[in-house]
Write a structure and sequence with these properties.
Layout lengths: L3 E7 L3 H11 L4 E7 L12 E8 L2 E7 L11 E4 L4
Parallel strand pairs: 1-4
Antiparallel strand pairs: 1-5, 2-3, 3-4
Length: about 80
């Protein structure tokens, strides 16, 4: 695994986006999908929280963070650490 990956913020469309990228680009695949284990303030049990995927060989994370920030050309960098 790479030490860093990109993180894209979505408002409920992270899994759809990862599936779209998989169908569109080579060397792209969906990995782990984390679902809410129970109801929470802004959502329901079973809703997708994050989607790990590889986009053109690059590690990526789709975060369903809500409507606070609109999807745009910006990305965040997710740095993997031991602790």
């Amino acid at each position: 695994m790479s030490k860093a990956s990109i993180c894209l913020w979505f408002d409920g469309q992270a899994e759809d986006a990862a599936n779209f990228y998989t169908a569109t680009f080579p060397d792209t695949r969906v990995g782990a999908v984390l679902r809410a284990p129970g109801d929470y303030r802004d959502g329901k049990e079973g809703q997708v929280l994050t989607v790990e995927f590889t986009l053109l060989g690059t590690s990526a994370l789709g975060l369903n963070g809500g409507p606070h920030f609109k999807f745009n050309e910006a990305i965040s960098i997710h740095v993997h650490t031991d602790d």
